[in-house]
Design a protein that fits this description.
346 residues; alpha+beta; BirA Bifunctional Protein, domain 2; seven-stranded mixed beta sheet; 11 helices; rod-shaped
């Protein structure tokens, strides 16, 4: 029966020889299925034990255990070798050269139009105003008539602009949203601002554009006076241009306010002494305002003998140009990256 022991030894050597040829995980798995499963030649050889008796059976069992142990030990060593090789290759493939410069993630800039718009909104929200944003397309009724500008009013001439049809146009100011807000309140007090884009037929030059932004404000309640308007605008001006700015009211005319005023601020360049920026006057015009016209209150369901109010409107680009020294309104809309990059938040 010495042939069976020779067969065990030869099979063990063949298996160990085949294992030396294994180079990767895929072939290692194939080797395991071929030589270490229950259907492998080594496992099948164990069935020969039934033909042996006595001491031969014991020696055969020992020889088979030695062969299995040798194969298992060699397999584990090969498995570790392949795993370590795979890890080394992965580290080599994914290594980072720390001597290379790092990525430069550049922050984008924000158009100063939106910087100023957000700052204006924050200022008024902080003192209790609501924010109302209406549609850019409005009816003639809300855009003009509800603002005390009937069809034959001469004030329409400078605003009658971009009509979609005979009764619908791109809004020429954000005032229509004030009328909508008063309709919603149904005669109750309100404090609101309405920021947004407006559109008028105009020549595009350094200081004018057919499209521009406005923030209009409206306060309606009992006992509202011009003093409340002045105090509000002084707060706004000093938040936007500094605590040293002085506010001056000049009489003016707007169809939807009475009395109406132009609001000037002391020149931030010369401090009110007079320079080329303020044309020697010491003041710069910044916005228009006034007490809400009784007709506007009546059309919105308010009794002018009980309620009063004030309104104001400021151009967003106007404030931004003064704040940042921008010399051409068209820069807000040209999308020039060089312009926007000047307003990257640090």
């Amino acid at each position: 029966m010495s042939e069976i022991f020779t067969k065990v030894a030869e099979l063990k050597e063949k298996i160990l020889s085949d294992l030396k040829e294994v180079k990767d995980e895929l072939s290692l798995k194939s080797f395991q299925e071929t030589h270490m499963s229950k259907k492998s030649a080594l496992s099948q050889l164990m069935s020969e034990i039934r033909n042996l008796v006595g001491e031969e059976k014991t020696k055969f069992g020992q020889a088979m255990n030695d062969a299995r142990s040798a194969v298992q030990t060699a397999f584990q060593a090969k498995q570790k070798e392949i795993q370590e090789k795979a890890i080394a290759m992965k580290l080599e493939r994914e290594k980072i050269d720390i001597t290379l410069p790092s990525y430069n993630y550049k922050l984008g800039g924000i158009n100063p139009f939106y910087l100023i718009q957000d700052e204006i909104i924050d200022t008024f929200v902080s003192i209790g105003y609501e924010v109302k944003e209406g549609p850019d397309v409005e009816t003639d009724y809300y855009n003009f008539e509800r603002m005390n500008i009937p069809a034959d009013h001469p004030a329409r001439e400078m605003q009658d602009s971009l009509y979609i049809n005979p009764t619908t146009l791109l809004r020429t100011h954000t005032s229509p949203e004030q009328a909508h807000a008063m309709d919603e309140k149904q005669g109750k007090p309100l404090m609101m601002i309405c920021p947004g884009k407006t559109y008028r037929r105009d020549d595009d030059d350094a200081t004018h554009s057919h499209q521009f932004g406005q923030v209009e404000g409206l306060v309606v309640g009992k006992g509202i006076t011009m003093a409340n308007l002045k105090a509000t605008l002084e707060l706004f001006v000093r938040r936007m241009f500094g605590e040293k700015r002085e506010v001056r009211f000049r009489g003016s005319y707007f169809p939807f306010t009475e009395p109406s005023v132009e609001v000037d601020i002391s020149c931030m360049n010369c401090g009110g002494k007079g320079c080329s920026m303020c044309k020697g006057t010491g003041f710069i015009e910044i916005l228009g305002a006034g007490m809400v016209h009784p007709n506007v209150l009546k059309m919105s369901g308010y009794d002018p003998s009980v309620y009063s109010g004030f309104a104001f409107g400021v151009g967003i680009e106007r404030v931004a140009m003064l704040r940042y020294g921008i010399d051409d309104i068209r820069k807000f809309y040209q999308g020039d990256v060089r312009f926007i990059e000047q307003f990257i938040r640090k």
